[in-house]
Structures are given as structure tokens and as C-alpha cells.
Design a protein that fits this description.
Layout lengths: L1 E4 L4 H17 L4 E3 L19 H12 L5 E3 L7 H10 L3 E4 L6 H6 L1 H7 L4 H11 L5 E7 L16 H14 L5 E7 L6 H8 L4 E4 L5 H9 L3 E4 L3 H10 L3 E3 L16 H4 L5
Parallel strand pairs: 1-2, 1-4, 3-4, 5-6, 5-8, 6-7, 8-9
Helix pairs in contact: 1-10, 6-9, 7-8, 9-10
Length: 272
């Protein structure tokens, strides 16, 4: 059994586990997510085989007592080959750390991963009903503030004006079409009225559904395009339906182009 352990936030946990899941699937090994056994219970994985709180406690304390070995991918410069060999040679092992990466296997088992992380219909259906009220081209905009004010010196904590500029440029790429913009944010000061004024385009309709983290994740995944700063949150939203994603930090030469929107298999190898 491979026990996958880590901290950090929801979508970081999801991607980290998915890499290990894909490796375990390829090597016919059982795998258990310690994080999703007690947290983020709105994903299908929380009801899957081996994902249980008692098993989480077992792995946690056996690891603490050094009775379970650990393969730690904590540092970017870790010896991944040696750690993979350790995983192959141990029947039971804890795998931890953000830098565990099996990109090709992830893509091979991506459909299974998406199924594991299907969001409960009790959450998705109300969001789906709200979004069905509008029939324009759907642009999901991830406005990340909060922790981004400090992370890497706040370089990716963009202003309302910058987001509005990108929304306006996107609308210009699809002229004479109605654009329904769905804002996802962790900043309570964000206002749909403010963005309507800043964008100032009658064909652009701004929507702020004020959902929680998982509701907004699903909302973004149901859009036709997604844009935002570098974040695993918008990356995971892109993963479900391979929604084209624009990472705003990469648009450096001139105005936004449709070619700036790339698919999941491009971006997930370029996590910041």
C-alpha cells in the first residue's frame, strides 16, 4: 500500500496525489490518499476503497514511529530515481512532498483521475442551474488575492484594472459575441459592478456567484475559457474538460491572443 501524505491547499493536494495514483496504477499497486480521507469530502475519492479515517490514523502514527518508510519528494532537487526505486522495493510506504512528478503516467490515467475527483452533484447542480441562465461564451476569471499578496512578493496579485484589461482584450478577440464572465475570487472586496464599469462593454456580462472554493472550482471547469495568475486552482479547473487556460503572467508581448489559451497537458508541466 502506498500512503500519500502532504499539506498545503486543496488543488496542490489533488495534483500531488494524482501523480502518485498514476504511478501506482501503472505498477499495479494500491494507493491511499491520507489528505482526502478526512478533508475535502465532496470529491468521489473520499468514498473510494482504502480512503478512510482509520487507515489515515494508522499510516500517520506508523510513519511517526518510523515503522513505515517514507519517500520524500520535498525538495525540487531530490533524487527522484532513487525515491522511485524505494517505492518499488517497499510493499508499504508513505510518499510525501510536492515535487513528486510522473507526467506521462498522469496523462495516461487522466480520465480515471478526473473520475476520482468528480465533485458531488449536491454542489455542482446548483452552480449548473445558475450558469444556465446565461448563453454567451463563458470566460472564467480567477482573481487570486489573499495569500498572493505576499507569495513571491505579490508579483501575481493583480489589480482589478489588470483583470479588466485582459477581459476587454478577450472580448475583442471574439467581436459581436456576448461574453459571460464568471469571476472566482478569495477577495471579498471584488464587485461585479466594479468590473462592469471597468470593462465598459455592453457585450460583456459580469457574474459573481459568490461560491465557496469547490463551487467556484466547478464553475471555472464549466467555462469555455479560463484566465488568471499561475495557480493550481485554475489548472485543476482546466483539467476536467481540458478547458483552454491563459496564465496571465506569460502574456508579455502585445495584447492577449487566443493562442495564449493552452490546454492542460501544456500547463501542468509548467507549474510555478
Amino acid at each position: 500500500m502506498i500512503f500519500v501524505r502532504d499539506k498545503s491547499q486543496m488543488c496542490n493536494n489533488l495534483l500531488q496525489f494524482a501523480h502518485v495514483y498514476a504511478w501506482a496504477r501503472e505498477h499495479n499497486r494500491s494507493v491511499m490518499s491520507m489528505r482526502f480521507s478526512y478533508k475535502y469530502k465532496f470529491f468521489r475519492i473520499s468514498r473510494s476503497r482504502f480512503v478512510s479515517f482509520p487507515l489515515y490514523l494508522f499510516a500517520k502514527y506508523m510513519s511517526a514511529l518510523k515503522l513505515l518508510p517514507t519517500a520524500s519528494f520535498k525538495h525540487e532537487e531530490c533524487d527522484a530515481q532513487a525515491l522511485e526505486k524505494k517505492m518499488l522495493n517497499r510493499r508499504h510506504i508513505v510518499v510525501s512532498g510536492w515535487y513528486v512528478r510522473f507526467y506521462d503516467l498522469f496523462l495516461k490515467y487522466r480520465d480515471e483521475i478526473c473520475q476520482l475527483f468528480t465533485i458531488d452533484s449536491s454542489i455542482t447542480e446548483p452552480v449548473r442551474r445558475k450558469m444556465s441562465e446565461w448563453d454567451g461564451i463563458r470566460l472564467g476569471v480567477h482573481i487570486r488575492r489573499g495569500d498572493y499578496a505576499a507569495w513571491r512578493g505579490g508579483i501575481y496579485c493583480y489589480s482589478d484594472e489588470k483583470f479588466a484589461q485582459f477581459i476587454g482584450q478577450f472580448a475583442a478577440l471574439i467581436p459581436q459575441k456576448t461574453i459571460d464572465v464568471f469571476l472566482s475570487t478569495n477577495d471579498p472586496s471584488v464587485s461585479a459592478d466594479t468590473f462592469t464599469r471597468l470593462v465598459s462593454n455592453p457585450l460583456v456580462r459580469i457574474h459573481l456567484l459568490q461560491g465557496n472554493g469547490v463551487e467556484d472550482l466547478y464553475m471555472l471547469s464549466e467555462c469555455d475559457y479560463i484566465m488568471g495568475p499561475p495557480s493550481t486552482y485554475s489548472l485543476v479547473a482546466s483539467m476536467y474538460r481540458d478547458v483552454p487556460l491563459c496564465r496571465m503572467d506569460t502574456v508579455t508581448d502585445g495584447p492577449l491572443q487566443l493562442s495564449d489559451f493552452r490546454h492542460f497537458d501544456y500547463w501542468f508541466r509548467r507549474v510555478v
